[in-house]
Amino acid sequence: MQKMEEIIAKIKKIFHASKLNEIDKSINSISGYFGDDNFCIVLPNKEQNYRLLEFKLSEYIKKHGNGVSFLPHYGVYIIKDRKLNISQMYDRAVLANDNSKGNFSDRFSYYNDDMLGILKNEQIIQQEVKLGMMNNEFTFYLQPQYNIESDKIIACEALVRWINKDNVIIPAYKFIPVLEKTGFIVEIDKFIWEEVIKWIKNLIEKGIKPLPVSVNVSRIDLYYLDVASIFCGLIDKYKIEPSLIQIEVTE
User: Is the dihedral angle over the CA atoms 100, 105, 106, 110 positive or is it negative?
Assistant: First the structure.
């Protein structure tokens, strides 16, 4: 039996090779594959075109999905400002698409200028995070893991903390989702992994027996990094026991 990821990958290839080209001919559109799970279609702004697109793709998924159930999301940018280049128009459609996820009654979401404000805020946060990393504003705190039966702390979890130049702790919920969305979370995670392992090594050199520490691995890390190789490299670099590091994949 094929894995769901393989089936979806197959459907993507077929979309790009034939189905989207077929749809282009029927609604006078131009389509292309933008990587990952993303396709872009430029088409005449008519409601019937959107519904025909949704119908044709949904029917195709039902026919070729081998029982795999998933629904496409559609972000729509209606071209009003022709001074924008294609990339900027695409970014606006992506913003609208992100807004449509979780809406099962209507798979379409239309771009508005409020969404651009969100994008600008995310860009500001990312720039501040990059600057914060340069200024060593990121660290980790340890959250103990307690065993009720033994009445002892048996391990710890490392949690990233951002303390800015004004000595203010920035809550994780304000920047982690942005970094996951942009992919920059991999830089933060790699930094924290090494800082934790370096800290463990420092304890050992001081004659203190460390407890195992778990570190977070984002799903984004698994897409962009060879996580196993990185951890093996860090463990070899600092000469610590592998059992002292535990990995927790975040939701």
Answer: negative
> Which residues have CB under 8 Å from 148's CB, separation 6+?
none
Q: What is the mean pLDDT of residues 40-49?
A: 84
| 173 touches 159 (CB < 8 A) | no
What confidence tens digit (pLDDT) does each residue in 118-133 have? 878 888 999 999 999 9
Which of 30, 102, 113 lies closest to 73 in space, CA to CA?
A: 102
In this prediction, residues 180-205 reach a mean pLDDT of 94
d(CA 160, CA 124): 20
Matching residue, tokens 């050199």: 205
Position 112 confidence tier, pLDDT thresholds 50, 70, 90: confident
Decide: 165 and 137 in contact? Cβ < 8 Å. Answer: yes
Residue 96's CB is within 10 A of a number of other CB atoms, namely: 21
- Tens digits of residue pLDDT in 49-67: 888 887 877 777 777 655 5
Using alpha carbons only, give the angle 56, 61, 66 rounded to the nearest 5 degrees.
155
Torsion of CA 122, 125, 126, 132, to 10 degrees: 180
Mention every residue, 6+ apart, whose C-beta is less than 8 A from residue 114.
none
This prediction has a pTM of 0.63
- Dist CA 82 CA 250 (whole Å): 41
Q: Which residues pair with 32 in a beta bridge?
A: 40
User: Pick from 129, 133, 132: which is nearest to 121 by CA?
Assistant: 129
At 66 the three-state DSSP class reads coil
> At residue 102, does pLDDT exceed 60?
no
pLDDT at residue 220 greater than cutoff 80:
yes
Q: Count of CB atoms within 10 A of residue 178's CB?
A: 19
